[in-house]
């Protein structure tokens, strides 16, 4: 088992197998939809605590269901939109730190907004399967609460945006599907919706695009082990975002699990697991805090195609903005969007597709060169980015790859392309020279690089770069060539 598998295994065992029992509550076996009975609680209070976030109170101002005066007391403003944060499964029975960060970020950027934290800790602080079973019931309570706001103070449900993390994503989905009447909740955002016991279920048994007018989801920890993953892998929204492919996240070092276990015992696992799982939350907070650094994601079939830089198109809604400021568009089929991110906030990177046409002059020999690339932009320079081609260079072909930059270099104006020399290649060349005598005294065969075509994802700008001296397009090991912007001096190959 590698360390990632070990981690998943430990995590899943702590999720699935009963550990220390919390409370004395006995619950039924896993609920299905048919077992869920809609019971309107008109007079009694709800299990969920609705805490209106304010700058002044530490725990929020609690609004009690069916008690109008608490809406006044907490200064709920019915003419403003409502964002409700719904937490997930709880290991320690406490509200996690990100909840307050998210609430503060929402409030700081959008003063004209009500922010409520739906605190369902008593039902969430259970064995995982019990907490899963409780998600329907809590969803129903949130639906009841929204209906009450509508009936009592004419707050329109289309003005409500539920943001649910992990199990909370499915709670939000149930709230959306249980609310009565034909109108739907405005928006639901699922932040790494929980995978175990939801993956592969029918749309009515998990978060799905039908649950609100608009549903978006961010998947950040879908690495599978034994067929299970912490976050759900399948698309569950109108737009499903898969940062860095969605499996795992940069900066979440798997080795930390050992340090954490050493330091905190077995509960240390949750710290490590949280990193990639909770990244979905911090990506969302990032979208609130950094208006000038909104991350764009691109529609693509899979991460491998994306990693070749093939999907950086924004035509016909192929791209969208990750997080709060997403373009709300309901398409008939859900779209899976991909992007790369940095390891920390602000997470935005700038995506580029590079297309280079190589002609390998050494017929029949595949070359596996290592290249580095240096870019000069109108704002900044980036030096010596390593490039790994997925396949070796053979014959006469265009290669496409993805390059991401942490900084905005402005408009790209010059490219330096270097073939990092290797002894191996020199050997090949020597062999070639002895068996093909005509190369002696003329020039060494190498690679011909005529043009580099670049597409910038963030600006959608397409550019062509040509070798500075048009007569000298031959590239040899340890050599660097400079490419400058040019008109297309060569007929275009297939434009993909
Ligand atoms: C509610 O919000 C609206 C819109 O910003 C504002 O005009 C109104 O004064 C607010 N009401 C209260 C009671 O604060
Ligand atoms: C490379 O291929 C193109 C078309 O596929 C052809 O026109 C060109 O002559 C080829 N170049 C070499 C050096 O083989």
Q: What is the compact description of this entry?
A:
The protein is built from ten helices and 20 strands. It is α/β, with parallel strands linked by helices. The model is unreliable at 1-7, 16-35 and 437-441 (pLDDT under 50).
Describe the structure.
Ca(2+) binds at residues 206, 211. Keywords: Calcium, Glycoprotein, HDL, Heparin-binding, Hydrolase, Lipid degradation, Lipid metabolism, Metal-binding, Secreted, Signal. Its EC number is 3.1.1.3, 3.1.1.32, 3.1.1.5. Residues 21-43 are annotated as: Disordered. Pfam families: Lipase, PLAT. There is one protein chain. The protein has 496 residues and is α/β, with parallel strands linked by helices. The chain has two domains: 3-339, Rossmann fold (3-Layer(aba) Sandwich), CATH 3.40.50.1820; 350-485, PLAT/LH2 domain (Lipoxygenase-1), CATH 2.60.60. It has ten helices and 20 strands. The chain has helices at residues 3-16, 68-73, 97-109, 121-124, 128-153, 167-178, 256-264, 268-289, 303-307, 423-435; strands spanning 49-52, 61-63, 82-86, 114-119, 160-165, 185-191, 212-218, 239-243, 296-299, 319-321, 335-339, 350-360, 370-377, 381-387, 396-405, 412-420, 447-456, 462-467, 474-475, 480-485. The strands form two sheets. The chain has an eleven-stranded mixed β-sheet with strand order 2-1-4-3-5-6-7-8-11-9-10, sandwiched between helices. Strands 12, 13, 14, 15, 16, 17, 18, 19 and 20 form a nine-stranded antiparallel β-sheet that branches. Helix 3 (97-109) packs parallel to helix 8 (268-289), helix 5 crosses helix 6 (167-178) and helix 7 crosses helix 8 (268-289). Residues 1-7, 16-35 and 437-441 have low confidence and may be disordered.
């Amino acid at each position: 088992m590698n360390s990632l598998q070990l981690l998943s295994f430990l995590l899943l065992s702590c999720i699935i197998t009963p550990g220390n029992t919390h409370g004395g509550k006995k619950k039924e076996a896993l609920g299905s939809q048919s077992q869920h009975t809609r019971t309107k609680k008109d007079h009694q209070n709800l299990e969920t605590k609705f805490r209106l976030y304010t700058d002044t109170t530490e725990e929020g101002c609690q609004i009690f269901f069916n008690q109008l005066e608490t809406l006044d007391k907490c200064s709920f403003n019915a003419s403003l939109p409502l964002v409700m944060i719904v937490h997930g499964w709880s290991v320690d029975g406490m509200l996690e730190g990100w909840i307050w960060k998210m609430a503060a970020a929402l409030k700081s950027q959008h003063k004209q907004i009500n922010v409520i934290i739906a605190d369902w800790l008593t039902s969430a602080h259970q064995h995982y399967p019990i907490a899963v079973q409780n998600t329907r019931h809590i969803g129903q309570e949130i639906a009841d609460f929204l209906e009450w706001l509508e009936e009592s103070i004419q707050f329109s449900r289309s003005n409500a945006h539920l943001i649910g993390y992990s199990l909370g994503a499915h709670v939000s989905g149930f709230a959306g599907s249980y609310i009565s009447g034909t109108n739907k909740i405005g928006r639901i955002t699922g932040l790494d919706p929980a995978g175990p016991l939801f993956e592969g279920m029918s749309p009515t048994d998990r978060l799905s695009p039908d649950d609100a007018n608009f549903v978006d989801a961010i998947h950040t920890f879908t690495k599978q082990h034994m067929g299970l993953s912490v976050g759900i892998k399948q698309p569950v929204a109108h737009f499903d975002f898969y940062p860095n492919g969605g499996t795992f996240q940069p900066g979440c070092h798997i080795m930390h699990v050992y340090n954490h276990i050493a330091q905190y015992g077995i509960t240390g696992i949750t710290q490590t697991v949280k990193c990639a799982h909770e990244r979905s939350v911090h990506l969302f907070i990032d979208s609130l805090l950094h208006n000038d650094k909104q991350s764009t994601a691109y529609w693509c079939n899979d991460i491998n195609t994306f990693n070749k830089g093939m999907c950086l198109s924004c035509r016909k809604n192929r791209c969208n903005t990750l997080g709060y400021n997403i373009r709300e568009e309901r398409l008939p089929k859900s779209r899976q969007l991909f992007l790369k991110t940095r390891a920390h906030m602000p997470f935005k990177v700038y995506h580029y597709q590079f297309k280079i046409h190589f002609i390998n002059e050494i017929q029949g020999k595949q070359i596996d060169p290592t290249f580095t690339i240096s870019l000069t932009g109108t704002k900044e320079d980036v030096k010596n980015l390593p490039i790994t081609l997925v396949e070796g260079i053979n014959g006469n072909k265009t290669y496409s790859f993805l390059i991401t930059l942490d900084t905005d270099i402005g408009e790209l104006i010059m490219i330096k392309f270097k073939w990092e020399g290797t002894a191996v290649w020199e050997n090949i060349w020597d062999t070639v020279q002895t068996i093909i005598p005509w190369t002696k005294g003329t020039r060494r065969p190498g690679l011909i690089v005529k043009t580099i075509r670049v597409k910038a994802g963030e600006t959608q700008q397409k550019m062509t770069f040509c070798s500075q001296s048009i007569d000298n397009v031959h590239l040899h090991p340890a050599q660097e060539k400079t490419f400058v912007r040019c008109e297309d001096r060569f007929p275009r190959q297939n434009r993909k």
